[in-house]
Specification:
Layout (H helix, E strand, L loop, with lengths): L8 E6 L3 H14 L3 E7 H9 L6 E7 L1 H10 L9 E7 L5 E6 L2 H6 L3 H19 L3
Antiparallel strand pairs: 1-5, 2-3, 3-4, 4-5
Helix pairs in contact: 1-5, 3-5
Organism: Candidatus Magnetaquiglobus chichijimensis
InterPro entries: DUF302, TT1751-like_sf, UCP021774
Protein name: DUF302 domain-containing protein
Amino acid sequence: MIDTSNPHALKKKVSTDYDTTIGAIKAALAEQGFGILTEIDVAATLKKKLDVDTPRAIILGACNPKLAHRAMSLVPDVSVFLPCNVVVRENNGGEVEIAALNPETMGQMIANPGLVEVADEANKRIRAAIDAVN
């Protein structure tokens, strides 16, 4: 079940291991029309830049081109919210969580009825992708 206690994030703890979860969420996002534009290995970056050890985490920059085009055609500045970040992270106990920016945040921050529609569709697709991973 997706945790929505933070209105700006969609989160879910999963039973799969870190590497399996990354593959599963990439596949689930692809099923929902999202491609992965960027991958940031947060732990490796922090180790390299700050010489600190942190639990593994990856930020996937996911984009659904059709939704992105619709949104940017309505409000060009919505591009500051793109791509949609989806995070897979592991805590110190080895538990794995998927988290994503709630696309409805875009619709709330930028008052445009058409953008609200796009954000709602993106929300449904991101939720479906997260729900597909166990």
